Amino acid sequence: MLSQFGGGTKTEETNSLNSTTLDGLVIAVPTSSHGDYIKKAAKNGLGVFVEKPVAESPEEIEELYHVCEQHQVPLCCGFQRRFDKSYAQAAQHVQQGSIGKVSNANIFFGDSPGPSLEFLLEGGNIFYDLSCHDVDFIRWALNDEIESVYACGTSSREELTECNIQDNATMMMTTAKGSIITLTMSRRAAYGYDQRCEIFADQGKVNVGNEFETTTIISDEHGDHSSRLKNSFDTRFRDAFTNEINAFADTVMGKAPWPVKKEDVIRVQQVAAAAKKSLETNQIVYIGKR
Amino acid sequence: MLSQFGGGTKTEETNSLNSTTLDGLVIAVPTSSHGDYIKKAAKNGLGVFVEKPVAESPEEIEELYHVCEQHQVPLCCGFQRRFDKSYAQAAQHVQQGSIGKVSNANIFFGDSPGPSLEFLLEGGNIFYDLSCHDVDFIRWALNDEIESVYACGTSSREELTECNIQDNATMMMTTAKGSIITLTMSRRAAYGYDQRCEIFADQGKVNVGNEFETTTIISDEHGDHSSRLKNSFDTRFRDAFTNEINAFADTVMGKAPWPVKKEDVIRVQQVAAAAKKSLETNQIVYIGKR
Amino acid sequence: MLSQFGGGTKTEETNSLNSTTLDGLVIAVPTSSHGDYIKKAAKNGLGVFVEKPVAESPEEIEELYHVCEQHQVPLCCGFQRRFDKSYAQAAQHVQQGSIGKVSNANIFFGDSPGPSLEFLLEGGNIFYDLSCHDVDFIRWALNDEIESVYACGTSSREELTECNIQDNATMMMTTAKGSIITLTMSRRAAYGYDQRCEIFADQGKVNVGNEFETTTIISDEHGDHSSRLKNSFDTRFRDAFTNEINAFADTVMGKAPWPVKKEDVIRVQQVAAAAKKSLETNQIVYIGKR
Amino acid sequence: MLSQFGGGTKTEETNSLNSTTLDGLVIAVPTSSHGDYIKKAAKNGLGVFVEKPVAESPEEIEELYHVCEQHQVPLCCGFQRRFDKSYAQAAQHVQQGSIGKVSNANIFFGDSPGPSLEFLLEGGNIFYDLSCHDVDFIRWALNDEIESVYACGTSSREELTECNIQDNATMMMTTAKGSIITLTMSRRAAYGYDQRCEIFADQGKVNVGNEFETTTIISDEHGDHSSRLKNSFDTRFRDAFTNEINAFADTVMGKAPWPVKKEDVIRVQQVAAAAKKSLETNQIVYIGKR
């Protein structure tokens, strides 16, 4: 990928950002450093691809998009579900009206492999870390907006309970068009990377299911045994990441606009913030009109 | 069934309830008439099987159980999931600890075939009508108690919206042991009777899936096409109903106690009432200790 | 069933066959006694339902159909796949041309629970015992005729090998219309009653799959574990048997002809005989025009 | 891949084969040119990877292995099922005895997309073209040898029938250890690349299933609709091909022997030849001891 699109690594930073042979920059550093890189890239006329979130606060997100607009370079935030064939096909069916008027969606995000206790204790809020991809997806698929959030969380271990850190959480959201959405998240699904979404409407249902490590099934006196789910995002979303980088190349070359807009990036952060606040206050939290 | 257990129909009522050949009474009349029949049966020394709910209000439920206790006859409220092999197997796995410590459950109740608009307009609250079986099941499977409920609903048709009648609704509940449960309900799943339950824990997951009309799959250039889900409760839960009536016979004959207790019957009504109130007030509703 | 259709048991034989209240006779005795009962029933003007095979030899089958024709009573041989929703739906798709021109069918018959070694040693040829239902089905579904058979068998245990008794066997057949059919049979599928049929054509494929004991799936670190297949024919084909008896009632009452004809019954016996001969001679065996 | 392993294209041929920087050669040219390239590579001390078949005749295969042995370079024939996680896992289960004593295997090879009529008319025997991968796999998985073959074929179109060209065919094989294997092949599965293998034994069954384009399922009033199978070998076996090339690199670097031996390569050609002869003579064909 690197050679194909003329990228480089961090150690080549100074040279690469001034390089006349570069068209775009793929940023893969911690969120706190996103801002610096995005600004440098913009000032060098380079389009930027960055994994979600662009920045922690809506204000900083606004600022970074503003800088990129000034320098007329695209700021491309990655939400790989939009580039995944299964998720995209589900969204297309909903948008085409194949299943009628949507009333519900139930989403499951079970991460794998689970992080260490140390990682969990050091922080990282479950809503900020896990909800963004699915909130972006469902807003896009339903062409709808989240208006309220109620969230609860639980801790699977005593050490987490003591520190008030949740590694399992559920959000229930209502939308502008009147749909109800649940999103259940876990930091660790013991049986593999479990990412599903089901959208229910008056004429049918669309479901995005999981991918398995193998298609081998053993049948014995106890029943049928199939393989574990794929273990993590890298194998499950491998093709989506490829599609995403190809789309970034197209955007940098001016062939197609980037589908994720500033408003999308800000809204998913607002929804995560609302979920966090709901859990802390034990209240339903309403999100203002964007 | 009738001949096997010495039952009869309503028109034979007077004779049958005095009959010395009867051991038990299966009541299948509207809820509002349950009380009369239960009292008559108890006074004649007959055990009673009645579909949920035993009565509308917790007070009346208390009274009817009291009458049956006085006459020393069992009052057996039917929740067929407890007698369904798939649901019972899932509960057993959870209770045995096969999947570890439970943190979540996500339940789906899609009824089929959908009722007429007239039926919906005439009343019947979605929480009272649809939530009971799953609330009873999850309390039993997790050996846990519902403590709070947040509920939202939507109307699939303009006529229902105008009358403030919801035909789709979702409840999010928390339990005494700290689990979070979602229950999504619909009066009408266009693709058949969709009844699923998934319980997530730190070592795995248990899922109860649907049954299909046939096992035939057509593969063509568009993909794989399998049959519709079974259309309704009578085919999906046929074996469970048979098991249930057999269990009632065992209870009447003193061979085994009835698994559903007065407290269970009252609690599911309280949860439905809490959900209704939550929707009306747009607040989280807490249910007191039982 | 018995009371519904006025049947009785063997001990009531003398009375029942002369009874004026009887319309039909369901025969469920060993094949060697079929002839006597069929003749008695015919002479008493009673329609007869009998499980396959009607008789061992084509000659005796011919004779029994002749007797029933003379007395103008239907002789109804049961092949339950024709009354099973899944198999019937597959046949219908093929007959309607949904999948185009058929070139292949692959069929699997795994019996369960497996018989004892004693049973196997005492006899019963695997082709006669296991092939009939599937040969009848595929002839009907394809509206085609078997013309040649090549068969091989194996023995899963030393004791069976010594006695030249096969408990696993495979037949490969060609049809008049040019299709190729394989039928793999086993006396014992350790994982349950495994009955599948797949028909392949130039525009697609139709597959009849298995039914499971439950729909419960456990997911753990090793993968997904679903239930065992249904254990035997009585649970797998329960509805088909009910449909079959209802169809017999309709035939006896003159409402509908019985779908299985004399020619069908004879042909499946001829195919079984050809398979047996093929295994014994290690040659391809051709079956003459019917 | 090319840059990683120091390969090149055909136009660089002269230089590349003499290159001191090359360790191995991946040959991807028509079978008739395999011999020349293999000999050149061997003489230059380069290990060779070549897709099956190494050559058309057993004699030429022998010769080419001999040349490579003389020059002490590995001749690595690719059978990608051995490097596919699903097929390899199935083989491992069988070899470990997880399912007991094998009696049967049923294999399906449905190619996709189907070739043009012109391609079919120009030749290419279905047994030589399609049977090799599965015959290699089943020999390896069962650690067994094919001893007899009976094969039939059909033509899906009038033009093919006229030219005696089969685009659908089925082989039934017996093995040295007493198992029976069927292999059903089609030049064109309209619903996608259909590659399955099922191995049946006295304690259970192992099945390798298909992979789908997406995991999206639409449920509507007609049933459940899932995506098409993956369309062809390049997507279905993508990871297997990567594994295969990595294994070739390991072999060239002396880290691991190549798993496919000369005897394997010759035997699959003999089995294809036997199938062709069986179809032509309408006889069971026996293959001598290797």
Provide tags for this entry.
12 helices; 39% helix; three-stranded parallel beta sheet; 290 residues; alpha/beta; disordered N terminus; 24% strand; homotetramer
Strand order of the largest sheet of chain A: 9-8-4-7-6-5-12
Question: In oligomeric terms, what are we looking at?
Answer: homotetramer
Percent range for β-strand residues of chain A: 15-25%
Unreliable stretches of chain A (pLDDT < 50, length at least 5) are 1-12
What is the helix/strand order of chain A? HHEHEHEHEHHHEHEEEEEEHHHE
Calculate the mean pLDDT score of chain A and round it: 93
Largest sheet of chain A: 7 strands, mixed
* Overall strand count of chain A: 12
**Helix fraction of chain A by DSSP (H/I, runs of at least 4):** 25-40%
Largest interface, counted with CB-CB under 8 A? A-B, 36 and 36 residues
Radius of gyration of chain A: 20 Å
Give the terminus-to-terminus CA distance of chain A: 37 Å
- Number of helical stretches of at least 4 residues of chain A: 12
Protein structure class of chain A: alpha/beta
What global shape of chain A is seen?
Answer: globular
